[in-house]
Design goal:
Helices cover about 0% and strands about 50% of the residues. It is mainly beta. Strands 4, 6, 9, 10 and 11 form a five-stranded mixed sheet that branches. A hairpin with a 2-residue loop joins strand 9 and strand 10.
Length: about 200
């Protein structure tokens, strides 16, 4: 917080009846105004995780994050560097806003960790970042089952779904095959209340 004082001067003049003199009284009224500094708020990190011993490019979103230059994690084996636009003839290299390259070390155990951003207005609230053992892909959302991308067994698919839309994926299965599909969503800070539906090819 910061505070500022504003002063208002009131000038009052009183003249004696007998002309003996005049005097002036000046009074100072001081009021204090409190100003609230912006608070860095992290809403999402996407994709919200990565595979052990890999590097992944992520994009953050939130409020008052324009001057954020650090992405921090609760495990020392997960580090991040801000993405930089290359230098040109006229400008030096500069930050690409809200984008980071995350490195996940080989000794980081699979699990859910905290991610925070930091910058001009301090450190943000945490968001979940999941380290897994499976290969990971980013799904380009599609509302048309005919153009849905193909997922594979033993794979993590990261995607974004609008609240009023559906997202389709194709999965090749064999007769009698048993497959587990897990939509983590709210367990990793998403507001999605997901429903999974399996349909036949036709």
């Amino acid at each position: 917080r910061s505070s500022a004082s504003s002063a208002n001067w009131f000038h009052v003049t009183s003249v004696c009846r007998h002309g003996l003199g005049a005097f002036a009284i000046a009074c100072l009224a001081v009021s204090t105004v409190w100003g609230q500094l912006p608070t860095t708020q992290l809403s999402s990190v996407f994709p919200p995780g990565g595979k052990v011993a890999s590097t992944v490019d992520v994009t953050i979103s939130g409020a008052d994050i324009d001057d954020v230059d650090r992405l921090l994690f609760s495990h020392p084996g997960i580090t991040a560097q801000p993405k930089m636009a290359p230098a040109t003839e006229f400008e030096p290299a500069k930050l690409i806003g809200q984008q980071f390259t995350v490195n996940i070390a080989a000794d980081v155990p699979p699990g859910t960790y905290e991610a925070r951003v930091a910058g001009r207005f301090g450190i943000s609230n945490p968001r979940s970042f999941v380290v897994g053992a499976l290969d990971e892909v980013v799904n380009t959302a599609t509302n048309d089952p005919k153009t849905a991308p193909v997922a594979t067994i033993n794979q993590t698919v990261n995607g974004i779904v609008d609240g009023t839309n559906r997202d389709f994926l194709k999965l090749a299965l064999k007769q009698g095959q048993r497959v587990l599909i897990d939509c983590q969503a709210q367990r990793i800070d998403s507001r999605l209340d997901g429903t999974l539906a399996l349909t036949a090819p036709n």
